[in-house]
Design brief:
Helices cover about 45% and strands about 20% of the residues. With about 160 residues, it is of the alpha/beta class. It has a five-stranded mixed β-sheet with strand order 2-1-3-4-5, with helices on both faces.
Length: about 160
């Protein structure tokens, strides 16, 4: 997916948020702020994009998003429980109604048998307390994994915005 296609997807997310009068916060690890960059590339995004957290280290996840140390120790940084905690932390540490979180292993190193390169965990949270998470395995090099992660996170949020009315 090209950067222009990612920005088109980001614009659709923005339109859906604007129509609802709601704001978004992001919590990113392996994508390093790429989702926030796509969102803020859209003119007028300040009407629906509240803030982004880039929490690459475990300490940043704990300090900025209140991800419990126990979650990181028990499940690891790349896990659905950590993604959920990141998403919930982004909502609670912002004025957003929605958040999305991404944590994964983009490679080329860092993978293991249990958590191979290309494994990415996502979560989407709502201010009202709802939170959903899922994990996907993406093929390709570091750039391809990160790009696919950005696209999936945005698509996942758009679907949830459209479903929830």
């Amino acid at each position: 997916m090209s950067q222009a296609e990612l920005e088109t997807l980001a614009a659709q997310v923005g339109e859906a948020l604007l129509a609802r009068g709601e704001m978004l916060a992001t919590a990113e690890s392996c994508t390093g702020g790429w989702v926030a960059q796509c969102l803020t590339a859209i003119a007028g995004s300040s009407a629906w994009f509240e803030r982004g957290f880039v929490t690459y280290s475990n300490h940043a996840k704990m300090d900025m998003l209140d991800v419990p140390k126990m979650v990181l120790e028990k499940h690891g940084a790349v896990s659905e429980p950590t993604a959920r905690a990141m998403a919930q932390g982004a909502v609670s540490h912002s004025r957003a109604h929605w958040s999305l979180a991404i944590t994964g292993i983009a490679g080329p190193t860092g993978g293991s048998r249990e958590k191979p390169v290309g494994l990415v965990c996502f979560a989407w949270a709502r201010l009202d307390g709802g939170c959903q998470a899922e994990s996907l395995q993406f093929p390709g090099d570091r750039q391809a994994v990160r790009e696919a992660s950005v696209a999936h996170a945005l698509r996942g949020l758009l679907e949830r915005l459209l479903i929830s009315g």
